[in-house]
């Protein structure tokens, strides 16, 4: 306690809080290491400094005049008491600084002050945490919360108006996890570091995606003084999942396959691929449903990657379910809607072999969603001239390497559509002669 005249500063609280600010120079020094400016509360014009021990702690103030006086308060600035200081010119120094007080200077007669300075001896309030562990009252599939026994005392200061204010400590929680790399389509192990302000047991963190210890370091005020402590949990068995999926449609077809934008034509093989944070993610189940029966799967596959060939028209739902190795967490967020177009089969009635290359110079069908196909061309006496089984193919109007004569020929086409049924079509195809072409009878 500073002794001397107990003269009170003659100003009101309103004047204290709203008086015009003049520039004042406070210099804070002493203790073990450099004092730390832990908070700058501009609303109440007060700065909070932490000392590591109060040995040699001093406050120095420089003004434009030599008439300033020092005061300090514990609960309210209006109840401040004078403080003894030593003076040298326009500067004065308080040599017996005590923690738990707010200090300020009355500069001149109008009591206008640039700011207040609150002093805390951090050495008296170290971080004390025992039995650090992962809390059981959080959902381990979505969150991580730490728990432990803490006897850490709060860091408190009072504004000039008397409001008790807590100085929030800051900690760092660090642990190994897996990070998804979109460019490489893969997971990599990385160290995650989260800053926690305030109570370290009242913050939800992202759950780790691999087995790891969790370290809690702090607080960050202690780091400034080289007093930082680190607390470690035991090995935590991860259960949280992160899943990424992709699809690839394998669909062959020629220029005569009439596919619209975004259409999936049968038969279409779709490859489904899932990547997750293995080995935490261990069970992959793909299920395919008709949209009208979403509770009755057509097929069920296990594994991170699978393929399925869609042969029938309709709307399908493809759903992925991923579970961790313990069965605690299950991800069912990945669903695909697939629509397979109904069959189309258009058959021309004429073509011009070698007439205009690339333009109607072959007998080809126009099709959508054909799973099986067979076409045969006959002459008028019933002799087979050509056959093909790929709907993308066609007849070039030749028999044994030579163009056939102009005229009508007969075709039979059988195909299986997306209705699951086999259809048979037959009719005439007219070969139109080009003046440049030669038939088998021309020499």
Question: What can be said about the biggest beta sheet?
Answer: 6 strands, mixed
Using the CA coordinates, give the radius of gyration.
42 Å
- Based on Cα principal axes, name the global outline: elongated
Low-pLDDT stretches are: 1-24, 439-443
Overall average pLDDT: 87
Query: How many extended strands?
Result: 35
Q: Number of helical segments?
A: 2
Q: Terminal Cα separation, in Å? A: 129 Å
Q: What fraction of the residues are assigned to beta strands by DSSP?
A: over 45%
Structural class designation: mainly beta
Report helical residue fraction: under 10%
Q: Give the oligomeric state of the chains in this entry, treating copies of one chain as homo and distinct chains as hetero.
A: single chain
Biggest sheet: strand arrangement:
2-3-10-9-5-6
Brief overview, please?
The chain is mostly beta strands.
């Amino acid at each position: 306690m500073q002794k001397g005249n107990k003269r009170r500063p003659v100003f009101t609280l309103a004047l204290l809080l709203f008086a015009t600010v003049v520039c004042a120079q406070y210099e804070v020094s002493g203790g073990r290491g450099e004092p730390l400016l832990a908070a700058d509360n501009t609303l109440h014009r007060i700065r909070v400094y932490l000392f590591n021990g109060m040995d040699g702690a001093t406050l120095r103030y420089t003004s434009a005049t030599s008439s300033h006086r020092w005061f300090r308060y514990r609960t309210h600035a209006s109840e401040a008491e004078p403080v003894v200081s030593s003076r040298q010119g326009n500067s004065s120094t308080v040599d017996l600084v005590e923690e738990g007080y707010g200090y300020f200077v009355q500069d001149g007669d109008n009591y206008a002050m640039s700011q207040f300075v609150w002093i805390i001896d951090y050495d008296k309030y170290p971080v004390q945490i025992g039995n650090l562990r992962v809390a059981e009252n959080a959902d381990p599939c979505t969150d991580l919360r730490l728990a432990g026994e803490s006897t850490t005392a709060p860091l408190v200061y009072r504004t000039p108006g008397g409001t008790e204010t807590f100085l929030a400590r800051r900690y760092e929680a660090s642990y190994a996890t897996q990070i998804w790399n979109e460019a490489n389509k893969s997971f990599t192990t990385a160290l995650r570091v989260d800053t926690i302000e305030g109570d370290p047991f009242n913050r939800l963190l992202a759950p780790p995606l691999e087995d790891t210890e969790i370290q809690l370091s702090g607080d960050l005020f202690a780091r400034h003084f080289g007093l930082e402590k680190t607390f470690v949990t035991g090995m935590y068995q991860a259960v949280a999942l992160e899943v990424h999926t992709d699809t690839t449609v394998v669909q062959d077809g020629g220029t005569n396959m009439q596919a619209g934008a975004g259409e999936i034509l049968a038969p279409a093989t779709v490859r489904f691929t899932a990547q997750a944070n293995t080995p935490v993610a261990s069970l992959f189940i793909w299920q395919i449903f008709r949209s009208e029966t979403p509770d009755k799967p057509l097929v069920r596959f296990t594994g991170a990657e699978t393929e399925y060939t869609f042969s029938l028209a309709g709307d399908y739902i493809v759903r992925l379910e991923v579970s961790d190795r313990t069965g605690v967490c299950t991800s069912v967020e990945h669903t695909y809607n697939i629509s397979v177009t109904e069959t189309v089969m258009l058959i021309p009635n004429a073509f011009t072999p070698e007439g205009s290359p690339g333009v109607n110079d072959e007998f080809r069908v126009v099709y959508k969603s054909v799973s099986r196909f067979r076409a045969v061309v006959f002459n008028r006496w019933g002799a087979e001239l050509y056959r093909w089984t790929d709907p993308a193919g066609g007849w070039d109007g030749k028999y044994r390497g030579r163009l056939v004569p102009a005229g009508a020929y007969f075709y039979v086409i059988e195909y299986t559509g997306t209705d699951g049924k086999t259809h048979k079509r037959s009719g005439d195809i007219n070969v139109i002669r080009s003046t440049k072409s030669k038939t088998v009878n021309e020499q």
